[in-house]
Amino acid sequence: MIVSAHVATGAAGGAFVGSRLAAVVLGAGLHAVGDAIPHRDIPSRRFEVCSGVVGLAALAWRRGLLDSATLGAAACAAPDLEHVLPFPRPGGRKLFPTHRVEGWHRSGGIPAWAQLAGAGAILVVVLRG
Q1: With the C-alpha atoms ordered 82, 43, 60, 124, is the resulting torsion angle positive or negative?
Q2: Which of the ends of the chain has fewer CB neighbours closer than 10 A, N or C?
Q3: DSSP label of 89
Q4: Helices marked H in 18-111 — which ranges?
Q5: pLDDT tens for each residue of 47-59
């Protein structure tokens, strides 16, 4: 999934469970589920990063930095940091399981524009709650 979709699904999951710890655990799990769904990524890394940061900032501003929705969003998006930051790669492989297991992260399926629209709709609902 695109970063903003990870942010949105993590926020929704965190808001649903209401517990900070559960939101973080669920966020990581939702990242794995999102990666398993065939999807197309946005070709602009800059747009991906900016849209994710804007979503997280809006959640932190509206709901608070330590709100379960904000933490769920951060936990769901965090695994993608290894695509842009120089994290260690033991054996040359990425750390998060869906990024290193062959065939888990598949291209195709949901277009980027649909993910972006869905992420926006989800975030509007979570931000209003």
Answers
A1: negative
A2: C
A3: -
A4: 20-36, 45-63, 68-77, 97-100
A5: 999 999 999 999 9
What is Dmax (Cα atoms) for the chain? 44
In the numeric block, the tokens 């398993």 are attached to: 36
Whole-number Å distance between alpha carbons of 14 and 99: 23
Q: Which region holds residue 117: left if phi is over 0, alpha if psi is between -120 and 50, else beta?
A: alpha
C-alpha torsion angle, residues 99, 90, 76, 104 (rounded to 10) = 20
* Residue 47 Cα distances to 15, 24, 57, angstroms: 25, 25, 15
Q: What is the C-alpha to C-alpha distance for residues 126 and 9, in angstroms, rounded to an integer?
A: 10
Query: What's the predicted TM-score (pTM) here?
Result: 0.92
Q: Using CA atoms, how far apart are residues 74 and 53, in angstroms rounded to an integer?
A: 9
Strand, helix or coil at 12?
helix
Closest CA relative to residue 53, chosen from 3, 115, 10:
3
